[in-house]
Design a protein that fits this description.
6-stranded antiparallel β-sheet; alpha+beta; globular; 148 residues; 41% strand; Thiol Ester Dehydrase, Chain A; single chain
Length: 148
Amino acid sequence: MAIMDAQEIMNLIPNRFPICYIDYVDQIEAGKSITATKNVTINESFFRGHFPGNPVMPGVLIIETLAQAASILILKSPEFLGKTAYLGAIHRAKFRQVVRPGDVLKLKIELTKKRENMGIVTAKALVDGKTACVAELMFVVAERNQKI
């Protein structure tokens, strides 16, 4: 059962169609961890060009999906509510298997470090319990319309 639906997610993060990739949040423990879901469908616009006859979700969009889940976790912290989390760095990203239409990406994020205006998470995307991607992501948090 989802604890946050798509509308609640869009109330928290600024991403919108066609680049809002989180369908729902399964669980969240504020300041610690989140599990979210992305249903990968053949209707995704990127499958038209990546790749015709062999549709594969681009790795950069898997990272973006992980980053959006991490943003939700970070922005649910009371001190960051109403702000925006900007991806500052990607470390140790590894892709273990391709993601195709029909797959359900389970996104598991753990907050490992939090300071005044930044956070670091470990992120994992799974399909059927198997790791598709892992990475460490760093975020800078700023006022919603502030230029950084």
